[in-house]
Amino acid sequence: EEQKAWWKEAVIYQIYPRSFQDSNGDGIGDLPGITRRIPYLKELGVDVIWLSPIYQSPNDDNGYDISDYRAIMKDFGTMEDFDTLLRAAHEAGIKLVMDLVVNHTSDEHAWFIESRKSRTNPYRDFYIWKDGKDGKAPNNWESYFSGPAWQYDEATDQYYLHCFSKKQPDLNWENTKVRDAVFDMMNWWCEKGIDGFRMDVISMISKDQTFPDGPVKADGYGDLSPHVCNGPRVHEFLQEMNHRVLSHYDLLTVGEAAGVTIDEAKKYARSDGKELGMVFQFEHVGPENGKGSVIDKWTTGKPQMPKVRAILNKWQQELEGKAWNSLYLDNHDQPRCVSMFGNDSPEWRVLSAKMLATCLHMQKGTPYIYQGEELGMTNTTFHSLDDCQDLEEINAWHQYVDEQKKVSPETMLACFNTVARDNARTPMQWTAGKNAGFTDATPWLAVNPNYKTINAEAALKDPDSTFYYYQKLIRLRHAYPIIVYGIFEPLLEDDQNAYAFARHLGGETLLIACNWTSEEVPCNLFDGKDGEELISNYANHKTGALQPYEARVLLLR
Ligand code: TEU
Ligand code: CA
Fold first, then answer.
1. Which residue is closest in CA terms to ligand 1's atom 11?
2. Which residues form the Glycosyl hydrolase family 13 catalytic domain (predicted)?
């Protein structure tokens, strides 16, 4: 019998605070702005808010570079603003989950400022310092943000590891003092009454301590993933975290586990609760989904449904009874799902957004909605590198276009318009008014020009909007245990156009079919079936067919 838990029955809403709602006219979203929008989230019906990092940060990576874990980023407000937000969320019956970024800190964190002072400083081993080899970096690893993963520090004639930007030095989890400091900080936040953690790149906290060269990639650098993801002590560290922090509170915990496999996920999200509740896996959003690669993650291609289905069905079936899935297509690192997986043309945007939402929310696991996904917000258009703010894009451009001349500017711009993270970070579109109601000032990142037609105000006035469709999906999940706990069964596994599956619980069966194309396709799954239609993006259906982007959900008793 599946263990029940509130976080298995919840729908999570991810807020990227920088882009959600400005309240003080500086063009940057902030905590009072979020508090002001609690009624909107209550109307949508979500159970939990996950905030991307709000801690003190120089914003090299928009808050994923923390310089003080117990202070609020000045751009976002004060600790009092946080306490007000937490109280308002709880009063509205909404839980609040923080983003825990402890694989690395900012290089402006006090620990790193001390650590880099001398080889004998008490904080030296809070980070990963190595001698160079023949005047070069300790090994051939490339950071996820382009260029060497090692930064030479003149003062002490050593290199420090940074899997991400050079302003994000990796913490040394082998050091018990690091673990003590992290767990102490986590308990401090739990004592404030938060309801959980999303754990940034938590699969990377245990590195292969021999730091061997990685397999050489197309750009000539070594791939560090095999030596930093799912490392030798990662489960030991997480079980210690569970023992010293997590097990003392009733928390939602989700590990962002880059590189996680099914077998690793069974350990990270093990049913006995000794590590985390669930993980984010990356196979369905990675090149394995058929979107291809110009170089590294950069592509102008689109996922192929049969490949996406094979991946998601694998995760549904292989974690059954062993671990709990998370369900997502969108987040602050991914392009907008209706542009990537659906069809963001005016003709098909709403229908395909509803179809994707149905396909995801009817699966087994905890669904995540990224801010604006409920409005069918789309990718934006970058006209040049100047339109981009994200250092992942800027670094990639300088390396692949300027330095290595492996990609033309036109191709790289097309890749940015397909997969750049900034697509997800354009301001939330609240109204058709100035800057989409996000700010009275110049926004830190340009608003998507389509805000005049795609915005919350218009959606709330339109009974057929994606907003009300998501609201209904959330209500269904709260009302029908089969949606939460039903066993997943793949159907029509060879169909090139329809993604179909069933859910089974206590003698009931839920039938789901989604047409991922703009063409009508044959499908007789529902023919002759008599049941209760829970939701569809079409008012009328055709026997033996699914209409373009049609999604249907039928409950058979
Ligand atoms: O992302 C980790 C991660 O795997 C991403 O780098 C992802 O692979 C890549 O962006 C896909 O394009 C987390 C955070 O979600 C991300 O925003 C941070 O930049 C990163 O860690 C470093 O903290
Ligand atoms: Ca602001």
1. 333
2. 14-425
